[in-house]
What does this fold into?
Amino acid sequence: MTSVKEFRIEQEATADSLGRGSFVFTDAYSVFDWGRMPDPIPEKGASLCTMGAFNFELLEDAGIATHYRGVVDGDDVVALEDAASPPWEMAIDLTQVPELPHEGRDYEYEAYHAEAGGNYLVPLEIVFRNRVPVGSSLRRRTDPADHGIDLAEWPEGAVDLEEPIVEFSTKYEEGDRYLDREEADYIAGVAEIEALEALALEVNRVVTERAESADLVHEDGKIECLYYDGEIRVADVVGTFDENRFSYEGTQLSKEVLRQYHKRSQPEWVEAVDDAKARAKERDVADWKSLCDVEPEPLEAEVVATARDLYCAGTDAYTGMEIFDAPPLSKAVGSVRGL
It folds into this structure.
């Protein structure tokens, strides 16, 4: 199980064949790599499942291979439009995910690929960026000039990029880190880094065009991929408000709202998390949470309600479907501005 969705296996994958299973989405949320936070966000799970399914169907219409099989509706697996109610469960093909041995922060990717063979989940996250909003890690890791932007330093507002930037980060390490191209190529195994990059750009194009049709700005996001029988397929979940950043009339429409709210309302916890991660890196310790002595506090009821409306109204706007009992997007965004 991940921090926000459960994983069901119906048929195990083998070295020669894909398996079958499903994601069961929950109302949990996670920020700053903490894992499950104290509060559930009502209907968040159905929102993510709906938006993820919608995007997988867009990708397949564009000829992009994925691991998606449909949403679970009772005992059946159906297309999103045929679901009788907002779905919580997504049927998927499964690949192999071997253990990644490590000693401290020294991870043995050769062992991972030796066990995986030619059917495996690529142990990378492929990140694409169309703009650099507030909260983007690009601001603390790089300067504008590194990307051909004629600015001495990052401004307070978002910066649009002339062309998307693609980056690679680790997926299974305790503390995710961004990689140069050579190390990313090594970690990817037999999946070619150029093909992963091209696939990420194509997914970005599809999601960006859909967002524009709903008057949303698609700022950045990521994909994960499986490699099977010489083909790279999009895996995990694509283009939701947890995986990607969107905005509407200059206001964030993503999990970034909750990140920024915690920075303002619980700065002691956010600082403790940052400190624990830094100390874990210095000590070559993988489990940074064991070094954090501050716990996050629950959210106020009105913040939970605002987050719920953001996910549900945003999903309805993006898909063009009236799935949730939610306010108009402009009203939901107005509540976000008031946080």
